[in-house]
Specification:
The complex is a heterodimer. Chain A is mainly alpha-helical. Helix content of chain A is 81%, strand content 0%. Chain A has one domain: MetI-like fold (Orthogonal Bundle). The termini of chain A are far apart. The chains are: A mainly alpha, B alpha/beta.
């Protein structure tokens, strides 16, 4: 279970950073950046995670880059999740009234400054709940790291089931493990959401 | 601005508009809805890029979007109809943001100057409140303080009182009248004819994307030259 937690937390931190940058690209006034952001999202979001996981694992091996299984799993999970984070954050950015960005620019902030100082802080507050859903999806998606021999919760259950020939208790155990991770996460998201709300 | 034109799709918001504003001058732009007054105002700091023509400030044409334009916008204060105070920041933070991020002032200096400005517009007691906790009139005064904090060469007011209750209009106009009397260069888009009469050096009357008439306020209100302005004034001054 600790591997699952480590996979999830590391990947989510990376996905938040990458996804926010990609979202900023997608609303940028610079057309090539917008195109790059859109390409990132559309490619990663529309390929099954299992295909990405195995593809990168064998792809890295083929071109003789060896990151180890855990690192490869983090890279793939971060990249995949970042596409969902990017779309969520972009929706948040679009929800911030246009006047906020106009006011920011009218006092002389550049586009990146107005995004960072005025728009994103407000956008992030409105997307706490949907980002929470992305996080919970990631907890469960981390099970696919088992495909490339990272012994996380699901792979562990699989191994126990194989060793003991008793699959039902093994996978029931895994299910309980995921619930133990996901349910408190949901509660934390709810808490964060209330704290982040802007007084209106 | 010279021969400035701007369209939104098929709608011609501005058609070959020429206007120049002297330093220290207060120009009030009036006209019916959809006449292009707000667009004119927003083109001056390029919140709305123009389709053709040139907008110049101190003889320098507005640059393309980017650092140079941002620098120029810092010298042009803007006050919006819907206030647009930063919702996640306190009134004080709203006023200090520009000076610290753009002008590079220290936090304490920016704070001190912001408090002075807030005192001037009469809401220093609201410095630590969030915009949503203020009345419309207070929000608009905070927005004026935010713009003034940049020590702009020119202040643009885009219908600053149109979203306010009648009682609050006065407190905002008082602040604006004071600014005008101090010799601030101002372009004000407004339906407040009283303000135009008392504070403006020139009234610009717009209709259908064109400047129809430019005159000192006493002449504009007592003896408008164009038929369109006569018609407009007869409608709004009838009550």
């Amino acid at each position: 279970m600790s591997i699952t937690v480590a996979l999830t937390l590391t990947s989510f931190a990376a996905a938040l950073v990458i996804g926010t940058v990609v979202a900023a690209f997608r609303v940028s006034p610079v057309a090539p950046l917008r195109a790059a952001g859109a390409a990132w999202v559309e490619v990663l979001r529309n390929i099954p995670l299992s295909v990405l996981m195995l593809g990168f694992y064998f792809g890295f091996t083929k071109i003789d880059i060896r990151y180890g299984e855990f690192a490869t799993a983090v890279i793939v999970l971060s990249a995949y999740t970042s596409s969902f984070v990017a779309e969520t954050v972009r929706a948040g950015i679009n929800s911030v009234a246009r006047g906020q960005a106009e006011a920011a620019r009218s006092i002389g902030l550049t586009f990146p400054q107005s995004l960072r100082v005025v728009v994103l802080p407000q956008a992030m507050r409105t997307v706490v709940a949907p980002l929470g859903s992305v996080f919970i999806a990631l907890i469960k998606n981390s099970s696919l790291a088992g495909l490339i021999a990272v012994v996380e919760l699901t792979d562990m259950a699989d191994r126990i089931s194989f060793d003991t020939a008793r699959p039902i208790p093994a996978f029931l155990g895994a299910a309980v493990g995921y619930l133990l991770l996901a349910l408190p996460s949901g509660a934390v998201v709810g808490l964060l959401e209330r704290r982040a709300a802007i007084k209106r | 601005m010279e021969k400035v034109s701007k369209s939104f799709g098929p709608v011609k918001a501005l058609q070959e508009v020429d206007l120049s504003v002297e330093r220290g001058e207060v120009v009030v732009v009036v006209g019916p809805s959809g006449s292009g007054k707000s667009t004119l105002c927003r083109c001056i700091n390029r919140l709305e890029p123009v389709d053709s023509g040139t907008v110049m400030i101190d003889g320098v044409p507005l640059p393309e979007e980017g650092k140079a334009l941002a620098k120029l916008r810092a010298d042009v204060g803007m006050v919006f109809q819907s206030f647009n105070l930063f919702a996640h920041k306190t009134v004080l933070e709203n006023v200090t943001l520009g000076p610290t991020k753009v002008r590079g002032l220290s936090r304490s200096e920016a704070r001190q100057r912001a408090m002075e400005l807030l005192r001037r517009v009469g809401i220093d007691d609201k410095a630590d409140r969030y915009p949503a906790e203020l009345s419309g009139g207070q929000q608009q005064r905070a927005a004026i303080a935010r713009a003034l904090a940049m020590e702009p060469k020119l202040m643009l007011f885009d219908e600053p009182t149109s979203a306010l209750d009648p009682e609050m209009i006065k407190e905002v106009l008082d602040v604006m009248t004071e600014l005008a009397s101090e010799g601030k260069t101002m372009v004000v888009v407004s339906h407040e004819m009283g303000f135009a009469r008392s504070a403006a050096q020139r009234v610009v009357f717009m209709d259908d994307g064109r400047i129809v008439e430019v005159a000192p306020p006493d002449r504009f209100f007592s003896d408008p030259q164009s038929e369109r302005a006569k018609d407009f004034l007869s409608k709004i001054l009838a009550h």
